[in-house]
Write a structure and sequence with these properties.
The complex is a heterodimer. Chain A is an all-alpha fold. Chain A has helices at residues 5-25, 29-54, 58-88. Chain A is built from three helices and no strands. In chain A, helix 1 runs antiparallel to helix 2 (29-54) and helix 2 runs antiparallel to helix 3. By secondary structure, chain B is mostly helical. In chain B, helix 2 packs antiparallel against helix 3 (116-135). Chain B starts with 6 loop residues before the first helix and ends with a helix. Classes of the chains: A mainly alpha, B mainly alpha.
């Protein structure tokens, strides 16, 4: 037997929530990155689930786009994090507030 | 030949353009000679045109030619065209003739002035504008000349602009004229709206004069009164006459030009030009006649109490123009034109002679500091005497015939205004005799120290020939000018010459020969009374007679003060209020308030930019939550 789609969707929701809360409560930039990845993958899981449920390949195709964008984003984001660490010796997001109003 | 009539204004314009281009290099006196030649050329053309008109039959003397179209707009077509007829040619004759003499005179008078060539530039442009004004075949082109004359008068009155009084006199002249110009524009709009044309008598439907049946009585009165408002501005009538005496701040040739040949005659000319419109409205005519009569009287009383030689002549001009307007209001257009021509001769003469006196006395204008100039300035004194007798109305000089012609017609039309006119004639003879006695008679006072401690003058000297020649020519003209319209010469006179222009609208006085004789004798008596009065009162060496020069008259019936109180000061207060309250608080307040609001909003909202990424993430999450809630509610209740 296979699990019904609702389980997958529930799992995606849980993962997304963990990611969102993590993004808001954690200070370390690398951890915040991982939280973003969690949210992205939760979204991917939702797409795939719906693709299976509705028999539409489009949902699976879009996952590839999300993966590519996520990879690119990680490359740029990690580059910024590394550069910033070299200049300021910190990976705490709250220290990077020189643009505050 | 008539086709070349356009050369009149074009020659003056050419003089202007050449002087603009080369005036400074030509310098003194070549620039003056060039300007004089240009205007003299216009005069020659005017003579040829006159000759041409004289040779054609009297019913066939109107020649209209449109050279090109200025612009179209809807139903309005404005041509650049000229109308050559006895009226415009008469005007052109004395405009160009007297102007040429004034140009010649200026060569001597302006000698050594810093802006010598500029003076002739303005002078030529002035003559050009005036010729456009009188030759135009439509109201709008007349208006162009009208404005040109106005702006040239502004430049010339304020010619010595480094003097504050001259600068403000120029502004005053310009602003008073603008008030009249507004009336002119409104009249053009009104006439165009009703008749669909602005050409006088040419063009489709016979121009304005062919479409007069479209004008109701009320509209005609309104149009006439608006045109008359324009005329009061240009011709210095009550209530807009105050600028003319102040215009004395300009160099004396300018005063002569404005007063004798150009500018102030424009208003009277305009009224004569639209005579077919004037006859439609009796009330309008009555207003015109009354304003003219009252102006003539008021200005004459003021002239009796002025000390400045040019101011006396200025008020005298206002008074004489009042006579012309009175004549127009009585329907006696020919008499108005006759007096205008005669006035051009003797007032031009008087101003130029006064200028010669001022020139000889090192710019002294105070009558009380002259005296006995007949001994040192023989030419000036002799010619001035002719002018004096002419304006006073002593036969057989021009003023007697012209003024008599006006008064005859007024007598037949409005008895009360005639009495006022006769009283004015007495005053005219009086103030001119006073001027003559103070300047040329009795003992010299210029060799004494002035009342304000001014040093005594050197012995006056006679002016150079370029200044004397115009005086002599004008004196001859002022002496013989009456021959233009002698009462018994019906075939060769202004009457028959101008009759086609005023056909139908001319008022016939219908006086008997005996009544004419009686009126003529009355005029002579009035003139003699004035002269005798002045001789009795002003002979002798004592010149301080405050009883004869009441403050009321010296201050121009407090007319300027009244304007200052009623209009000037409240306006200034209003302007101050607008500047410091409305502008500083309300308008600036609105602008600065907007800036303050933006700044305050920015200060408040920038707090949202905390610099913590988690805050932004929370913002995004909340926003998403809101969107989801919104969409869910739409799904459930939509």
């Amino acid at each position: 037997m296979s699990l019904s789609g609702a389980w997958y969707l529930g799992l995606a929701a849980v993962v997304f929530t963990i990611g969102a809360i993590g993004l808001m409560v954690r200070r370390n930039v690398l951890v915040m990155f991982m939280c973003i990845e969690l949210m992205l993958n939760a979204a991917n899981l939702t797409f795939v689930t719906f693709a299976r449920m509705l028999g539409d390949i489009g949902g699976q195709a879009i996952v590839f786009f999300v993966l590519v964008v996520a990879a690119a984003e990680v490359v740029v984001g990690l580059g910024i994090v590394v550069t910033n660490f070299r200049r300021r010796s910190t990976t705490v997001a709250d220290d990077l507030n020189s643009l505050k109003g | 030949m008539l086709h070349y009539a356009y050369l009149m204004p074009v020659l003056a314009l050419a003089g202007f353009l050449v002087l603009v281009a080369t005036g400074r290099r030509l310098g003194d006196p070549l620039a003056g000679w060039l300007g004089t030649t240009a205007v003299a050329g216009s005069f020659v053309v005017a003579c040829l045109v006159l000759n041409c008109l004289l040779q054609s039959s009297s019913s066939n003397r109107t020649y209209v030619h449109n050279y090109f179209t200025w612009f179209h707009s809807g139903g309005l077509t404005v041509p650049i065209g000229i109308q050559v007829d006895p009226l415009s040619v008469t005007m052109c004759m004395f405009i160009t003739g007297v102007s040429a003499l004034i140009h010649l005179y200026s060569i001597g008078y302006m000698k050594g002035d810093r802006d010598y060539s500029k003076f002739f530039i303005y002078l030529n442009l002035f003559v050009f504008s005036m010729l456009v004004l009188v030759l135009a075949d439509n109201l709008l082109l007349t208006f162009v000349g009208w404005e040109g004359v106005g702006v040239c008068s502004y430049w010339l009155i304020a010619f010595w602009f480094h003097r504050d009084s001259a600068a403000s006199a120029g502004k005053k002249a310009f602003i008073y004229n603008r008030i009249g110009d507004a009336g002119f524009l409104l009249a053009i709009f009104l006439i165009f709206e009703r008749t669909g044309t602005i050409q006088y008598e040419s063009g489709p439907g016979g121009g304005i004069f062919g479409q007069l049946h479209h004008l109701g009585g009320g509209t005609a009165t309104a149009a006439v009164l608006l045109l008359f408002l324009a005329a009061t501005g240009k011709s210095a009538q009550i209530p807009l006459f105050n600028w003319l005496p102040d215009a004395m701040e300009g160099p004396t040739p300018v005063s002569a030009l404005i007063h004798a040949a150009t500018m102030v005659t424009a208003g009277v000319y305009l009224l004569c030009r639209v005579n077919h419109l004037l006859v439609l409205t009796h009330s309008g005519m009555l207003v015109i006649a009354s304003v003219g009569g009252v102006t003539a009287f008021v200005a004459a009383t003021i002239a009796c109490a002025q000390q400045d030689i040019k101011k006396v002549l200025a008020f005298s001009t206002v008074s004489q123009i009042g006579y012309m307007v009175l004549a127009v209001g009585s329907g006696a257009y020919v008499a108005a034109i006759f007096l205008m021509v005669a006035h051009a001769f003797f007032k031009g003469l008087l101003f130029l002679a006064a200028g010669s006196v001022i020139h000889g006395l090192d710019d002294e204008q105070d009558l009380k500091r002259m005296g006995a100039l007949r001994r040192t300035m023989k030419w000036t004194a002799a010619t001035f005497t002719v002018g004096w007798l002419a304006i006073a109305g002593i036969p057989p000089l021009a003023g007697f015939w012209a003024k008599g012609d006006v008064l005859d017609n007024v007598y037949a039309h409005y008895k009360v205004l005639w009495a006022l006119g006769l009283l004015t004639a007495v005053l005219t003879a009086y103030y001119m005799s006073r001027l003559q006695i103070l300047a040329f008679g009795d003992d010299p006072r210029w060799d004494k120290v002035g009342p304000g401690g001014e040093p005594a003058h050197h012995a006056p000297h006679e002016s150079p020939w370029v200044m004397r020649l115009p005086l002599v020519i004008l004196a001859v003209a002022a002496f013989l000018g009456g021959a233009l319209n002698l009462p018994w010469a019906h075939r060769v006179s202004l009457d028959s010459w101008l009759a086609p222009i005023f056909a139908g609208s001319l008022y016939h006085d219908g006086l008997q020969r005996s009544a004419q004789w009686a009126l003529a004798l009355t005029d002579v008596a009035a003139a003699l009374i004035g002269v005798i009065l002045a001789v009795a009162l002003w002979r002798g060496s004592r010149v301080d007679k405050p009883a004869l020069e009441p403050q009321f008259l010296q201050r121009v019936w407090y007319w300027d003060d009244a304007y200052d109180t009623v209009l000037g000061r409240p306006s200034r207060r209003l302007a101050t209020f607008l500047a410091w309250v409305i502008d500083a608080r309300v308008i600036d307040g609105a602008v600065n308030g907007t800036a303050q609001l933006v700044k305050a909003t920015g200060t408040a909202t920038r707090k949202l930019q905390t610099g913590y990424a988690r805050h932004y993430a929370l913002g995004i999450a909340l926003g998403m939550a809101l969107i989801i809630v919104f969409m869910l509610t739409r799904t459930w209740w939509g």
